[in-house]
Design brief:
Elements (H helix, E strand, L loop, with lengths): L1 H23 L3 E5 L2 H12 L8 E2 L2 H6 L4 E11 L11 E5 L8 H4 L11 E4 L10 E4 L2 E8 L10 E4 L1 H13 L13 E2 L1 E6 L5 H11 L3 E5 H44 L1 H9 L4 H31 L3 H8 L8 H22 L1 H8 L3 H8 L1
Parallel strand pairs: 4-8, 5-7
Antiparallel strand pairs: 1-10, 1-11, 2-9, 3-4, 3-10, 5-8, 6-7
Helix pairs in contact: 1-7, 1-9, 1-11, 7-11, 7-12, 8-13, 9-11, 9-12
Length: 371
Amino acid sequence: AAVFGGSVAAASLKNGLDSLEQRLGADIIVVPKDAEAKADLENMLLSGTPGYFYMDKSVEQSISAVDGVELTSPQYFLVSANAECCTVQVQVIGFDEDSDFAIKPWLRQSYSGRLGENEIIVGSSLSTRVGHTLTLYGVECKAVGKLDATGTGLDTAIYTSPDTVRRLIRASQEKGIGVLAKQSPDDVISSVYIKVKEGYDAADVAADINLGIDGVQAVRTRSMITGTADKLSVISGSIHILIIAVWVLAAVIMTAAFSVLASVRRKEFAVLRTIGLCRRQLGEIVFAESAAICIFGAAVGTALSSAAVFAFGRLIEEKTKLPYLAPDTVVSLKYLILSCGAVLVTGTVSSVWSAYRLSHVDTGKILREGD
């Protein structure tokens, strides 16, 4: 359980981090200049916590003029209400298909067309299927694509065009759930994704944006990933220590258990010797029993740990606040084989001393003791 479950859990966390790094696709993300906006951004990406914030769309032009900025693309965030007007509360992300360089590359894996009016692409964790609709603020939105799992908060989001997001904002205002107090949906954006020119340092470009443009905060995606990687490193290190500790403890307990069994079964093996079994055959009996015990233990342990690391993957992600993406079937089988092999080797080695003692019993002396 410890070897298989721990290995899969550590691999799932690493897969989630790699997936997050691939999905961000930008060097810098610019959000409104308040701590909550940055926190909301990280929560949306990592935990899937719905959030939204807005700034004037003219900010994108100012950012484009900063030295070192090669490409910019705006995004729009909206949260569907947990009310009768909406099928489910989800994070809505609008992206500009004409300028986007971060989202389209991996969205194209599930949908290659251009999003039309009220068309959406849904995350893997949503129950909506392709061809079905979601009602958001009374607007029927048709799912035209479904994304593969990423192990991040992006799995609970939906993606659509800026026009559809603006339409949803207006619909929310008509229902009295407006997210904008004064500005028009046409005049705002939520964030700007930036690709830095070759030869420029992303940290320097982010610093120039923060110094030269009021009301915004430039966040390097690498800094978000680094913080997440640090947490992952601590958790993965703890998992590996736990695996080693449990493995050593199990080896000691198994050695002691086989030793006790050897003492109890001395007379039994002495009788087997008298009826003609050689020492090699006695040793084979001990090793066969050890293998049977280890196979049974491996089966039970991997079954229990599988239930934890696969069935409760979403809960693990929520509790650790880290992206969690379980490995595919082939990789999982590899961990299963390696774990069972490790258990068999440990059990066999633990029974060596017992096999030696039982195969070298003094038959006459033990039988006389029995008398």
